[in-house]
Design a protein that fits this description.
Blueprint lengths: L1 H12 L25 H31 L6 H25 L8 H35 L4 H4 L2 H22 L1 H5 L17 H39 L6 H36 L9 H24 L1 H11 L15
Length: 339
Amino acid sequence: MAEYFKDLLTSMFSSEEAEVELCFPELLNSSCIKQNQSFLYSLLLSIVLSIISVLTVTLNLLVIISITHFRQLHASTNFLLLSLAVSDFFVGFLVFFQVMMIDGCWYFGDLMCALYCFLDIAITSASVGNMVLISVDRYVAICDPLHYPTKVTLKRIRISVSLCWTFSLFYSTVLLRSNLEQLSRNSSCAGDCAADIGFIAIVVDNIITFIIPITVIIVLYLRVFVVAVSQVQAMRSHIAAAKHSKVTAKKSEIKAARTLGVVVLVFLMCLCPYFCISLSSQDTLFNTLSGVYVISLFYFNSCLNPLIYAFFYPWFRKATNMIFTLQVFKSGSSDTNIL
C-alpha cells in the first residue's frame, strides 16, 4: 500500500510528457528549454508564490503607512522598521517574477532581466544592512541606555538608512557592471536570466552581504541578551516606588529588544540555507526542487516580519484597524494616540 501511494505521488508531480519544450519555439536552436514539470506541481507552486507575493506587498504596505502616518511612531527604532518594510515591500514584487519563471523561462527581455538582477542584489543588501542597523540600535538601547537618546537620534538614523540604501545600490551596480554593459551577451539562450559575476565575485558577495553582517548581528545580540538578563534581575530587586518609572522604561526597551530579536532570528533562519548553498558553490541546486524551496524561504522572510509586528506590537494592530476602517482619512488622525 505504501508503495502504491508513493507511485501515485510520484506520478502526480512528475511530467506526463517527455518531449522537449522550448521557451521560444519560433527561435528553434537559440531558445532555452523549459523545465520538465507536471501541471499540478506548477499550479501548486504558482499559488503558493502568488500568495506570498500578495501578502508580502500588502502587509509591508500596512507597516509603511502606519509608521509614516502616525506621528507617535516617528521614533528612531520605528524608522529602521520602516526602512526594512520598504525593502521587504519590493521583495514582494520580486516574488511575482519568480511566479512567472516557474517553467524556467524568462519572457521579459534582457533589459528587465538586468533590472531584476540589479534590484535582487540591491534589495537583499539593503535588508541585511537594515538588520545590522536594528541590531546596533538595540545594542545601544540596552547596553548604554543613559546615552541612547543622544547617540541614536532620528537625524542620525536617517543618515544611516540613507547610507545603507546608497551603498546597496552602488554595490549592486559594481557587482553587475559587466552584465549591465552587455545585456544580450549574458544569456546562453533566449529565455535565460542569470547574472554571470564569476566565482571570486560570488565569494566576495557572500562575505560582504552574509558572513560579516551575520557575525556582527550575532555578536551584538549575544551581548544584548547577556545585559538584558542582568537588567531583568536588577529590576526584580528594585521595588521602590521612586524607581518605578525607570524600571518601566527599561522593561519597554527589553521588550523591544526581544521583539526585534525574534525578527533577526527569523531573518537568519530564512537566509542561511540560501547563502550556505551559494557558499558551497553548488549553484546547480537552485535549479532543483530543493532549490525552489530555499529561494521561496528566502523571500518568505519578508512576509513574516509584519506578522511578527502584528503579534508583538499592539500599535501595529491598532494602526492596521484604523487603516482598514478608513479612519486615517479623517482630519487629525495622524495625531491619534496609537501607543
